Amino acid sequence: MALASAVNLAIMPPEPKVINIAYASPKSTLASSALVVSVIPDTPEKSLALNEKRGDEGKDEEGDGSTSGGIVGLENDNVAGIKGLIKQYFPKEPLMVKIADCESSLIQSAKNKKSSAKGILQIIDGTWEFFKCEGDVLNAKDNLKCGVKILEGQGLSAWQESFSCWKNF
């Protein structure tokens, strides 16, 4: 029998909230974790529903059950939150979640030691300037906004350095 859990959270006030999420799977005992969630100020208030089923059912295209039910900021590079944010900016290109994972392990403060590449999508300084991107390249939202411009202008070839990682997605 597949066990399922659902968490419904209404993100209303702009101050951080701590939400406890309990889930169970056939391979483990009951477990829980806590997330610190904060609303990104310039987005409308939304309800975020997270419904996961263990097994192959109920998973999204990445197989992790992350959701794009609303743009939220999750503290400490929370993987599910970063994936949800990427899905908001790239709703028609689910491959961008895999590309970001290959590029930065979904860490918004990632910096490449061998180049000027930075952030979730590892955008190099010249590309940031060419597309007239604004804000902080190490800010998830700003990095993804720039990524939208890059995808529109160069397509997936902009991330050819990590192609061997995401080519079989």
UniProtKB/TrEMBL annotation:
Its domain of life?
A: Bacteria
Region feature (Disordered) = 47-72
| Pfam families reported for this sequence | SLT
Which InterPro entries does the record cross-reference, listed alphabetically? Lysozyme-like_dom_sf (IPR023346), Transglycosylase_SLT_dom_1 (IPR008258)
Q: Which residues form the Transglycosylase SLT domain?
A: 90-152
Q: What is this protein called?
A: Transglycosylase SLT domain-containing protein
